[in-house]
Specification:
This protein has 498 residues and is of the alpha+beta class. 48% of the residues lie in helices and 14% in strands.
């Protein structure tokens, strides 16, 4: 049996709508994919340049001590460790006369990003560091994310098209609203209710219809004047009108009003029922009468009062050496002065590598300040490296003195982080840490150990112990940095005691 033409038309129209929607969605997905692939390449290059700048600054910090001491072994070790990064193809170190000092990796492509960094010591140029960076690893990572996004978008498109197809199948009437014609109905498809309605309608027409009119006269009138034909088809004025229907009414009989013109029809009587509920007086809940309001305590109130939680571009660092409270009463003044002079010489060695400003305060203690902030917190890396290097020098120096049966000082040293213009507040925090903590390790606080740039670089994988809520001991830093610091400490100690 052939399918009826309306069914075929609806199916064709549904297919066209679904196909059009699919083309629009897939075309949009294709354009978005092309655009995002172009943006991904640019973003990968930009990200690689930023990583190269950060790596260059850290590399300068690491290799400057080896350059000053002319230690080729340390230079090659550091360069070979850094070239293992997936985005680093090669690292080349040259002197100002373009002579090769150190090299790691191979340059295999012409599309690499080249960055040059000058290594200065005061006003003298020590060397030129060249970084050859490959943006393909970063671009591959972004492309993998885009592929996952495309797969998810395709799944959503398939579900959308399937839902539209099902929705159009269940509601075909929406597709045929533009077709006002009604299909003819066969007499054998009519239900009994249809026959009953037609019989009632015919009897009513026979009862109220005017006398029969000759067909020939109608045809003549139709040809002469069409308005007369309309008058013949109009119902008589004495035909009773349909009674009005008034919902929500209690009257059993409705008044039937007749009017000769439709514009003056009787208004429908509607009784409004007020469904608004009376409002209840809201009484206070007795359970909340004696409730106590809870107060949320701030975890870092003390640090916030001292303005120690600051951004990298406004952060300063202070290494505080408590020389006054750690010595024994058995140490003579000349021995005490001799030990303090050694510690001051150690600080001078540390400053030659990691910069900083050293000073002796009125109480006899020493401090090393880093008050020139950078947005990447590189001065914080220098501060931690300087503090750990001095800590290693101090411990190895004390071991030599103890083996020689000579007196030593029990130093307490603290490294604090705060606003670079608030040095007195950082001194107050450092004194509190050194006076309230019994440890020879580097003492610090949460404001430093939770600094974002330090956590992902120097403190990544570090051995950190929290002894109180806001007291932290840094025993070792990142493994690669720590190996270099231990090597520097041994080298400087040999210079101190040749």
């Amino acid at each position: 049996m052939d399918k009826p033409q309306p069914f075929i038309a609806l199916t064709s129209q549904r297919s066209r709508l679904t196909f059009t929607l699919a083309c629009i969605l897939l075309g949009g997905l294709l354009l978005a994919g092309i655009y995002l692939s172009i943006v991904a390449g640019k973003a990968a290059k930009h990200q690689t340049r930023e990583q190269g700048e950060l790596l260059g600054q850290q590399t300068v910090t690491l290799i400057k001590p080896a350059l000053l001491s002319d230690d080729g072994v340390s230079l090659n070790f550091v360069l070979n460790q850094l070239v293992r990064q997936p985005y680093v193809e090669a690292i080349i170190l040259k002197d100002p006369k373009d002579r090769l000092i150190g090299r790691a990796g191979e340059i295999t492509q012409d599309t690499l990003i080249k960055q040059e960094i000058l290594i200065h010591q005061q006003t003298q140029t020590l060397a030129i560091l060249e970084l050859h960076l490959n943006p393909e690893p970063n671009q591959q990572h972004i492309s993998n994310l885009l592929i996952q996004t495309v797969i998810l978008a395709l799944i959503i498109i398939i579900l959308t098209l399937t839902g539209c197809w099902i929705l159009l199948s269940r509601h075909p009437a929406r597709l045929s609203e533009a077709e006002p014609t009604i299909a003819p109905t066969d007499s054998h498809n009519l239900s009994p209710n249809t026959f009953l309605a037609e019989a009632t309608h015919d009897s009513a027409q026979k009862k109220h219809s005017p006398p029969p009119v000759d067909t020939k006269n109608i045809d003549t009138l139709n040809k002469d004047d069409p308005e007369q034909l309309v008058e013949l088809l109009r119902p008589a004025s004495d035909t009773p009108a349909m009674p009005d229907f008034a919902p929500f009414t209690e009257h059993k009989e409705s008044t039937i009003t007749q009017s000769s013109e439709p514009a003056n029809a009787a208004d429908t009587i509607v009784e409004e029922v007020n469904l608004t509920l009376p409002s209840r007086n809201k009484a206070p809940n007795p359970l909340f009468e004696n409730s106590k309001h809870e107060v949320q305590l701030d975890l870092y109130t003390f640090e916030q009062e001292l303005e120690l939680i600051v951004a990298a571009d406004t952060a300063g660092y202070l290494l505080y050496l408590d020389l006054a409270s750690g010595h024994s009463d058995n140490i003579r003044n000349d021995e005490l002065n001799e030990l303090q002079e050694y510690y001051y010489r150690m600080l001078d060695m540390v400053i030659a590598i990691y910069q900083g400003e050293v000073s002796r305060i009125d109480s006899g203690d020493l401090q090393l300040a880093f008050l020139k902030p950078h947005k990447d917190d590189s001065h914080g890396i220098n501060a931690i490296c300087a503090s750990q290097l001095f800590n290693r020098l101090y411990k190895q120096f004390n071991q030599q003195r103890i083996r020689s049966l000579k007196p030593v000082l029990n130093l307490h040293m603290a490294l604090v982080r705060g606003h670079y213009k608030k040095l007195p507040r950082m001194q107050e925090e450092a004194r509190f840490l050194t006076h309230s903590t019994e440890s020879n390790d580097l003492i610090t606080h949460t404001a430093l150990s939770e600094a974002p740039d330090l956590k992902v670089s120097l403190l990544a994988g570090a051995d950190i112990e929290r002894i109180e809520e806001d007291k932290v001991l840094i025993k070792t830093v990142n493994e690669n940095y720590q190996k270099l610091l231990d090597k520097q400490a041994k080298h400087l100690l040999k210079k101190l005691f040749p």
